[in-house]
């Protein structure tokens, strides 16, 4: 993208954010006045590790081998540092490389002695970032960016844009499709921003946004990009920076991996086989892992039905290639609206915080061809390894298997013909998924596939495991006893409505 388009886009985004109402997660109502800044007060902190075989990019070792994974990591470091060198030619920037493993001499010999190299401080990643950023502010830096070395798409324009946004916002984040971020910037010390974060999970971006909201810090999101951490991520490396995978001797990098899907072309004219319909409302911090997964599926079209988000959900979804339409707030109404614009013969309804099985397309297409097929869903898994969540998922799967009663967060799929034949979801404030499934069961048996869809544990964590579980069970029991959904919604208040559909 040209610099001029970046500037124009930046201006339009600022206008949008300044006019944003106050009740949003990103706290853009707290947009500050631009701060005067001198170029020599800008600081870039690069976080990485010495590319030692067997100790870096370990998740890529099964594909590339220990040496190949280390070579790839070294190439990514070179790419990131060369990008920063280009920035230094455009504007003055202080740069420090914070690393683990090896020595300062080794890092300087390998990557150039034009940067300052420092060992990372002890502690988890958040504690190390906090220590490094605090030290920068003690040196009278005013805008500080922390950048990893896993993103091959990092450019001087992205870095410059991040600094520009820090003139108006307290925090800037570069979202990664895996639920983390490839860049974070601040314009004043914010030590609590890095506390109580589940590092290494897909919750990092969402939790960081929430930490910022708690501190009334304004946040600006950049365009999302992919990190290269897992074998399935190599396809993005090949598309964005093919020289990184070809010119550095990485085994099999020039061959197409069998289990890596090809990205769908944005101008593809092929009719999709599955329409993935996602209702959203302020999901900017949660939806990226799902969108990143769906980007790979050339047999799918992605329809995001937004209920009036006041964060950057719409922009992020459009950036990821999804078709975004608007509908009245309410999960049932939104999903019905999405079903009106589908092109595929199969509809898959997915919550924004759900991750689908890797082979969900083949699983669904194989299932819908069975003569007895009516509708289906996946097993449930929760993205928290604690025993209590494994038990919650276990009992949900027993209910789904024996009673034929899956929930919406298990990914419901049905043929478009049958869905329209039974008039879709009823416009209920709660239990719209259960009501739909009851009508589908009159047509036949629902299929629960053996592979899991992974849903977020955020609702249980926010309201408490016991409370949330009791609320869910009370809703189910009350509904089957004949209590109206409207009364259930009034009984249990906004927390219940938020979970089940009034506030997706």
Features:
504 residues, alpha/beta, Spore Coat Polysaccharide Biosynthesis Protein SpsA, Chain A, 2 domains, 8-stranded mixed sheet, 15 strands, elongated, disordered C terminus
Number of strands: 15
How would a crystallographer describe the biggest sheet? 8 strands, mixed
Question: How many separate domains make up the residues?
Answer: 2
Main sheet strand line-up: 10-9-8-11-14-13-15-12
Mean pLDDT: 82
Oligomeric status of the shown chains?
Answer: single chain
| Helix share bin | 40-55%
Q: What does the overall shape look like?
A: elongated
Examine the secondary-structure arrangement and name the CATH architecture of the largest domain: Alpha-Beta Complex
Query: CATH homologous superfamily name of the largest domain?
Result: Spore Coat Polysaccharide Biosynthesis Protein SpsA, Chain A
Radius of gyration: 24 Å
Low-pLDDT residue intervals, each spanning 5 or more residues = 1-39, 245-268, 494-504
- Percentage of residues in strands: 15-25%
**CATH structural fold name of the largest domain:** Spore Coat Polysaccharide Biosynthesis Protein SpsA, Chain A
The top level CATH class name of the largest domain: Alpha Beta
End-to-end distance:
34 Å
Characterization of the model:
With 504 residues, this protein is of the alpha/beta class. It is 40% helix and 17% strand. The strands form two sheets. The protein has an eight-stranded mixed beta sheet, sandwiched between helices. A seven-stranded mixed beta sheet has the order 3-2-1-4-6-5-7, with helices on both faces. The longest helix has 30 residues. The N terminus and C terminus are likely disordered.
């Amino acid at each position: 993208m040209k610099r001029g388009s970046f500037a124009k886009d930046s201006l339009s985004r600022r206008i949008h954010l300044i006019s944003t109402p106050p009740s949003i997660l990103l706290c853009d109502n707290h947009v500050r006045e631009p701060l005067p800044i001198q170029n020599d007060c800008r600081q870039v902190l690069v976080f990485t590790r010495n590319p030692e075989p067997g100790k870096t990019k370990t998740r890529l070792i099964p594909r590339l081998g220990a040496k190949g994974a280390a070579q790839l990591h070294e190439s990514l470091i070179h790419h990131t540092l060369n990008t920063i060198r280009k920035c230094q030619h455009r504007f003055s920037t202080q740069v420090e490389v914070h690393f683990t493993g090896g020595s300062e001499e080794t890092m300087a010999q390998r990557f150039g002695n034009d940067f300052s190299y420092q060992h990372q401080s002890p502690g988890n990643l958040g504690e190390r970032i906090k220590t490094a950023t605090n030290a920068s502010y003690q040196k009278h830096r005013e805008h500080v960016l922390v950048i990893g070395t896993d993103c091959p798409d990092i450019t001087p324009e992205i870095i410059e844009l991040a600094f520009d946004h820090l003139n108006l916002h307290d925090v800037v984040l570069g979202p990664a499709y895996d639920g983390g971020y490839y860049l974070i910037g601040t314009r004043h010390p914010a030590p609590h921003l890095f506390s109580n974060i589940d590092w290494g999970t897909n919750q990092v971006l969402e939790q960081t946004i929430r930490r910022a909201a708690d501190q009334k810090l304004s946040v600006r999101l950049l365009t999302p990009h992919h990190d290269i951490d897992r074998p399935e991520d190599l396809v993005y490396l090949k598309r964005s920076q093919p020289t990184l995978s070809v010119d550095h001797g990485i085994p099999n990098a020039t061959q197409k991996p069998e289990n890596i899907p090809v990205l769908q072309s944005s101008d593809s004219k092929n009719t999709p086989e599955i329409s993935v319909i996602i209702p959203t409302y302020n999901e900017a911090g949660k939806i990226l892992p799902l969108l990143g997964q769906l980007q790979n599926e050339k047999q799918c079209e992605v329809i995001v039905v937004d209920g009036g988000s006041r964060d950057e959900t719409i922009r992020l979804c459009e950036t990821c290639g999804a078709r975004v339409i608007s509908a009245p707030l309410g999960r049932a109404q939104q999903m019905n609206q999405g079903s009106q614009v589908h092109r595929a013969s199969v509809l898959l309804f997915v919550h924004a915080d759900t991750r689908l099985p890797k082979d969900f397309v083949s699983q669904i297409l194989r299932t819908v061809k069975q003569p007895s097929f009516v509708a289906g869903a996946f097993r449930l898994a929760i993205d928290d390894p604690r025993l209590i969540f494994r038990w919650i998922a276990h009992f949900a799967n027993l209910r789904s298997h024996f009673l034929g009663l899956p929930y919406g967060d298990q990914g419901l799929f049905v043929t478009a013909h049958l869905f329209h034949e039974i008039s879709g979801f009823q416009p209920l404030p709660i239990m719209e998924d259960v009501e739909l499934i009851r009508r589908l069961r009159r047509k036949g048996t629902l299929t629960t596939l053996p592979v899991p869809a992974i849903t977020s544990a955020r609702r249980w964590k926010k309201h408490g495991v016991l409370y949330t579980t009791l609320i869910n069970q009370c809703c189910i029991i009350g509904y089957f006893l004949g209590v109206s959904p409207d009364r259930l919604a009034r009984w249990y208040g906004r927390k219940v409505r938020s979970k089940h559909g009034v506030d997706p």
